Amino acid sequence: MTRMVQCSYLGKEAEGLDRPPYPGEIGKKIYLEVSKEAWQLWLRHQTMLINEYRLSPVDPKARKFLEEEMERFLFGGEANKPEGYVPPA
Fold first, then answer.
1. What CA–CA distance (Å, rounded) separates 69 from 71?
2. Where do the structural domains in the chain lie, given as residue ranges?
3. What are phi and psi of 10, to 5 degrees?
4. Which residue has the higher pLDDT, 39 or 81?
5. Topology of domain 4-75, per CATH?
């Protein structure tokens, strides 16, 4: 049976994740409050941030930045976009 959550990002009930996607308390919060659809949107946004800012996921500063952006994206409304970023048509 599909697990449903009240998605904090989409603002509606949607299919929940199968397991916490991130370690620690933030992973538990994401598991309980974020849908699969919203998580996929975050992964696309994270990929854009990594590419635009040329981040290395193994760099501690980059990981901290991405974690802060993840929280802002999923729970705080709008995450930052790189300066001058133009979405593809």
1. 5
2. 4-75
3. -80, -20
4. 39
5. YggX-like (1.10.3880)
